[in-house]
Design brief:
The complex is a heterodimer of chains A (416) and B (276). Chain A has 416 residues and is α+β, with helices and mostly antiparallel strands. Chain A folds into two domains: 11-55 and 152-227 and 319-410, FAD/NAD(P)-binding domain (3-Layer(bba) Sandwich), CATH 3.50.50.60; 91-149 and 230-315, D-Amino Acid Oxidase, subunit A, domain 2 (D-Amino Acid Oxidase, Chain A, domain 2, 2-Layer Sandwich), CATH 3.30.9.10. Chain A starts with 12 loop residues before the first strand and ends in a 20-residue tail after the last helix. Helices cover 28% and strands 26% of the residues of chain A. With 276 residues, chain B is an alpha+beta fold. Chain B is built from eight helices and eleven strands. Chain B has a five-stranded mixed beta sheet. In chain B, strands 5-6 form a two-stranded antiparallel ribbon. A two-stranded antiparallel ribbon of chain B has the order 8-9. Bound molecules: flavin-adenine dinucleotide, iron/sulfur cluster (SF4) and FE2/S2 (inorganic) cluster. Iron/sulfur cluster (SF4) binds at residues 192-198, 211-212, 215, 254, 256, 258, 260 of chain B.
């Protein structure tokens, strides 16, 4: 049963704007540290980028050559998530495959960077990789094993929301933050628009905007200039579970170079472009064709498997749409922006990162909130297995999580 | 492009949006497009021929709907689409332009057409769901009977493949299949995405934990010998397998080929075997 002790209670009320993975993990972290938490999400929870990501549990191998620190954090966080949220993960490991000659030459640098980042990557014979995953391209030249896996995007975030709710956090879906109030240089409260369209003024002592690609718009409610450009990426799913292990190209991060299995599907992704708005982004025909052909390079015949779905999700790219900043690198790390110097003390923006590191992102933001309030409290979210996402609905309907329905029982020996 | 009228339940009435969408657009794509247009900050970028409310008053607000994964994996976007429970993210407008049953178990019928031949798409919240607003409904009751000890993981079909390469991180994070299930081999999620379409289609009116819950009960029974007896107890209660009237609409609408009706039959067989 999920029943972690709350070590001390604080009067401060913190509003978290955004019900994606980052906001979900933050609401849980703050609630576990004893704060009163109100999370608002303008649509359904995880209806932003979170629900639509590629679903890769990143060991960090993909980023190791470029940035050891990001890679190390991914590795640490995958181990934590595998302990606290095993039911939301298909953990089977992953294989990086070199298909072209230059990719084969990349192997030594790739492996040593992984090892430096604490990722136990190792070269395995191609023959071993192919008896394990026979779908892999027979022309594969070298193969490296890494501890990657699959995330159920919705259920991982919903497990954090369920944990937050169990600790008394107030979670409101279909509720948009439409106004931010400051006074005397600090955050005082805001205006919420609820599911029925009615607006309500609420007071809070701190505000964290975990609104991803929407962070610029939310910042502007407080008169802040937070340059963020939505950068959609597309994914394509075909029917059939072509592998159990995540298959990636042994090459610097590029487009269409990861194939993630999930339930009965195989998902290839992704791409990157820029958009004016994070709303209503749909994949283009060109992206879909490109991804199907990239899928064929990893797993011949990928594009002839029955087509299932194509969709797109927006990364928050630092900078403006017309700037030349190269996006792929920037959006991989995360940042906590403190708006104290801009007349909004107590307001922070938590942005960037990966779904894999949602807990670490939340820890950093919660640390900043604690420092601002002068209430130091340690982060303890790595310690307790999360409750099931299924308990969330009970909290949202005000009936608590347990004892509903004739078939509900306490775990005996525990599945989760 | 398909000329379309999307008619969305909002409380006691409907709100209507005309629009033209690509043939391969899904119902969810169409809603997302309508909502983006309506929410765009650009003046004049409202919905083409603004949606009209009950009194004919212009409105651009698209009623609330749930969505997350956009590929049939999260289970949030269920709605009754032209009479049939379906996932909006996997239902293409082209599917609705073809003959299709207008109610669970009904015969296929031609598409619904507007006065100028437009494809009419009527969206209503899932039956038995808890409606939040518009067509956003959580299938809470349909899932409430899923036992807490039900594991969402199962072993993956290994199809004669060699075991995955050795994994030095297992000691730090055991994870994977839970105790009582088959060893730490290849894992995957259960097929059921907990969307509640089955319960929405189910005509049973007596107290019933429903098809999704019974499918989970049977899966847990099959996977874990330790749980089997408890699962049969749940299945044998009056609101368990005995409440099922074998309409089989659940199996017809399930987007994941879970065939809950088959699981209920397997539970009946096991209960009968136990009674002997
Ligand atoms: C194409 C693509 C593929 C990816 N693949 C992976 C992967 O395989 N593995 C991985 O680990 N990560 C992946 N990521 C990264 C991952 O998706 C993100 O890091 C993560 O989902 C970000 O979560 P978030 O909560 O910060 O943002 P979001 O999920 O976007 O949450 C922000 C929320 O704020 C809400 N909001 C906006 N404005 C308001 C307001 N005014 N009031 C209230 N709420 C508001 C939005 O509706 C939204 O739900 C991928 C990203 C992309 C784009
Ligand atoms: S059994 Fe099928 S229809 Fe019912 S909840 Fe599961 S996936 Fe949905
Ligand atoms: S949006 Fe996830 S199932 Fe349709």
């Amino acid at each position: 049963m999920f029943d972690p002790p709350i070590l001390s209670r604080h009067d401060a009320r913190i509003c978290v704007a955004g019900g994606g993975g980052s906001g979900a993990a933050l609401a849980y972290d703050l609630a576990l540290r004893g704060f009163s938490v109100l999370l608002v999400e303008k649509g359904e929870f995880t209806s932003g980028t979170t629900g639509r990501h590629h679903g890769q549990l990143h060991s960090g191998a993909r980023y190791a050559v470029g940035d050891r620190a990001i890679a190390r954090e991914c590795m640490e966080e995958t181990l934590v998530l595998r302990r606290i949220a095993p039911q939301a993960l298909e953990y089977n490991g992953g294989i990086f495959a070199a298909i072209r000659d230059d990719e084969a030459d990349y192997a030594p640098a790739f492996i040593s960077a992984c090892l430096e980042a604490g990722i136990p990557a190792r070269e395995i014979p191609v023959s071993e990789a192919r008896v394990s995953e026979p779908a892999l391209n027979p022309r594969t030249k070298r193969t490296v094993w890494v501890p990657d896996g699959t995330i159920d995007a919705f259920r991982l975030a919903a497990s954090f929301l369920a944990a937050a709710a169990a600790l008394g956090a107030e979670l409101r879906a279909f509720t948009e933050l439409v106004g931010i109030e400051t006074g005397g240089g600090r955050i005082r409260g805001g205006t919420l628009r609820g599911p029925d369209g009615r607006e309500e003024r609420v007071s809070f002592d701190g505000l964290v905007s975990a609104t991803g690609a929407w962070a610029g718009r939310v910042g502007s409610l407080a008169g802040l200039d937070i340059p963020v450009t939505p950068a959609p990426g597309t994914m394509v799913a075909v029917r059939g579970r072509l592998s159990d292990l995540v298959l990636s190209r042994l090459a610097p991060p590029g487009d269409g170079d990861i194939l993630v299995p999930q339930r009965g599907l195989s998902v290839i992704g992704s791409t990157q472009r820029r958009a004016d708005s994070p709303e209503g982004i749909l994949p283009t025909k060109e992206e879909i064709e490109f991804l199907l052909s990239r899928g064929d390079e990893l797993v011949p015949g990928f594009s002839s498997a029955p087509f299932h779905a194509a969709w797109a999700a927006a990364r928050p790219l630092a900078g403006r749409a017309d700037s030349d900043a190269e996006g792929r690198a920037i959006s991989r790390d995360f940042a906590v922006l403190d708006h104290g110097d801009e007349g909004a003390a107590g307001m922070f923006t938590l942005i960037g990162g990966k779904a894999t590191v949602l807990r670490a992102m939340a820890r950093k933001a919660a640390d900043e909130v604690c420092a601002f309030l002068g209430d130091p409290e340690p982060c303890r979210t790595a310690e307790y297995p999360l409750p099931s996402w299924r308990s969330l609905d009970g909290y949202l309907e005000g009936s608590g999580a347990t004892g509903r329905g004739a078939g509900s029982r306490r775990p005996e020996g525990g599945a989760a | 492009m398909i000329d379309t009228i999307i008619r969305i339940r909002d409380g006691g009435g409907f709100v209507e949006f005309p629009g033209s969408f690509p043939e391969d657009a899904t119902v969810l794509d169409a809603l997302e497009t309508l909502r983006a247009r309506a929410e765009a900050d650009v003046p004049g970028a409202g919905v083409e021929g603004p949606g009209t409310g009950r009194g004919g008053a212009p409105t651009v607000r698209v009623p609330h709907y749930r969505h997350s994964c956009h590929h049939g994996s999260c289970g949030t976007c269920g709605a009754v689409v032209n009479g049939l429970p379906a996932l909006m993210c996997l239902t293409r407008l082209a599917d609705l332009a073809a003959p299709r049953p207008r109610e669970p178990g009904g015969p296929p019928a031609g598409p619904v057409r507007g006065t100028s031949g437009e494809l009419v798409v009527v969206l209503e919240p899932l039956r038995r769901g808890t409606v939040i607003s518009g067509i956003a409904a959580r299938p809470t009751a349909a899932l409430a009977g899923i036992p807490e000890e039900y594991s969402y993981l199962r072993s993956s079909e290994d199809a004669g493949r060699a075991p995955p390469p050795a994994d030095p991180t297992r000691a730090a994070a055991p994870g994977g299949l839970s105790a009582g299930s088959a060893g730490p081999g290849r894992v995957r999620f259960e097929a059921c995405i907990e969307c509640g379409l089955c319960s929405s289609a189910c005509p049973v009116t007596t107290p019933f934990i429903g098809p999704a819950a019974l499918a989970a009960v049977n899966r847990q029974r099959e996977k874990s010998p330790d749980s089997a007896e408890r699962m049969l107890e749940v299945a044998g209660k009056p609101d368990g397998a005995p409440a099922c009237e074998r309409h089989l609409h659940c199996s017809r609408v399930c987007p994941q080929a879970v065939y809950p009706g088959k699981h209920i039959q397997l539970l009946r067989n096991a209960l009968a075997g136990r009674a002997q």
